[in-house]
Amino acid sequence: MAYSRELFERAEDIMNQRRLQAEAQAEKRRREFSEAEPRYPALQRDLAEGTMKIMQVIGMGKGAAEFVEQHRQKCQLMQEGIRELLREHGLPADYLSTKYQCPICEDSGTDGSHYCQCMKKLLKELAFKQAGERSPLTISRFEDFSLHYYQGEQQRHMQNILQYCRDYTDTFDRDSYSLLFYGETGLGKTHLSLAIAGQLIEKGLFVLYDSTQNIMNRLERERFGRGTSDGEYEKMLYDCDLLILDDLGTEFSTQFTVSALYNIINNRLLSGKPTVISTNMDLKGIEEKYTKRIASRIVGEYELLHFVGNDVRQQKKTEM
Do 142 and 275 fall within a single domain? Predict the structure, then answer.
């Protein structure tokens, strides 16, 4: 899966904070126990010295084996002595150990040469949160998409679109089609876009979702601003597992935005990475607002899903 460098850095910071917090809490418990039990510091000091001696002679040859075994037995006795002190104080045997949130990687984020499952879970959570910062991902689910607001043939048509989006998400991979959601405002295009995004993020895929206006604004700042991002955001647009451009056509159109849109669409098609675009425009409107070159790429390469019906948001208002 492909996550942005920014997301990895945030995850690594969180893992580091978890580890430091666990170690600080363990150190606090040891300090408090030392004050309550005067026999503990000497045992702990001798245990640490014995362990160090073992580490120093391991691998030094045949003569070291007996020395290591003697000190290993002494260390075991000191460990049992510490456990006995803990029992006397009514404390569990692991009271003085460091309690990491993940005992497998000890909150380092890596399990040997691979990312630990806890790190993968954290990355998913951060990606879901990042995608939802500007959008209601938590309430835009497939099961919340009500067909009640569509009538007759329109309802059957929208039921087919809903099922198509479910199947698309269930079988999503690198070879999935790009999609164009088009139709009048208030028909559920954003809802289903977010439902796809949320479910794929939960699977651990890197989904980048935003309005076309926000994406173009950020691209323009990156291209012409004073920052030092070195095109990182643009690279994310090209590399993410799924890019969702919401509300195409509502952005302020300039030569830059038209060129940037073509580059995004064309680059992702060439690299086989799917894109979902939602727009209130019809196909003719896309060609008129942009160029035949962009329109032909979308019409020729995207799966076109026409949303029909009456404005659901308006219908919901009348029910209130």
Answer: yes
